[in-house]
């Protein structure tokens, strides 16, 4: 078995840069290390949930004004929806992959994001009726409702942020299993947050 350090390097490169598993196999071979591309995939599925859980404890608090949007991710030949949000300065709030784009998916995303972060004062969304209905469902259970804005240009910051995620998933040529897609996307989001300095370095 190869040392953990090599496993972590391969996994980091896979989710941090637009590389395919075949690219990584060739890159490691050039360094005298024989690693099958399917082995790198198994390492990623095993290690990324552990790394993401550890990062959650060190994540910086986000602001109280969120920009929420979703982007398309293909899984098993079908489009799924990656719900994402950043605050007004571009810090990642949270993310969630859902099979459908509807009120239930939006509500689940908002509940997860609120559970992992402070309750926002304002949430900006696009003209999606599903997102609006999801937020109304969340507000129905709150004494102080979250202010909702539907102003498209204010969401440019999260739409720009999508591009990094899409650039890294493109060489993967789609995902075959929903669970694996979610784990790998979580890893991509993790490395993206680290690159944006969303980690509190002083956290023990």
Automatic annotation (TrEMBL):
One of its GO terms (molecular function) is DNA binding. The keyword Signal does not apply. GO terms for biological process: DNA integration; DNA recombination; transposition. The keyword rRNA-binding does not apply. Residues 57-204 form the Integrase catalytic domain. Involved in the transposition of the insertion sequence. This is IS6 family transposase ISBmu21. The lineage of its organism: Bacteria, Pseudomonadati, Pseudomonadota, Betaproteobacteria, Burkholderiales.
């Amino acid at each position: 078995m190869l040392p953990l350090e090599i496993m972590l390097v391969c996994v980091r490169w896979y989710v941090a840069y637009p590389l395919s598993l075949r690219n990584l196999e060739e890159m490691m071979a050039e360094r005298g290390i024989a690693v099958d591309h399917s082995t790198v995939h198994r390492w990623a599925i095993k290690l990324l949930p552990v790394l993401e859980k550890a990062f959650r404890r060190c994540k910086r608090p986000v602001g109280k004004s969120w920009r929420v949007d979703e982007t398309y991710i293909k899984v098993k030949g079908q489009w799924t929806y990656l719900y994402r949000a950043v605050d007004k300065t571009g810090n990642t709030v949270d993310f969630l992959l859902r099979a459908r784009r509807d009120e239930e998916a939006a509500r689940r995303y908002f509940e997860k994001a609120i559970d992992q972060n402070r309750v926002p004062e304002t949430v900006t969304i696009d003209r999606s009726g599903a997102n609006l209905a999801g937020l109304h469902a969340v507000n129905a259970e709150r004494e102080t409702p979250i202010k909702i804005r539907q102003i498209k240009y204010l969401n440019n910051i999260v739409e720009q942020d999508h591009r990094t995620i899409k650039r890294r998933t493109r060489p993967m040529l789609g995902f075959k299993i929903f669970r694996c897609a979610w784990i790998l996307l979580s890893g991509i989001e993790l490395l993206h947050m680290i690159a944006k300095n969303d980690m509190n370095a002083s956290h023990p």
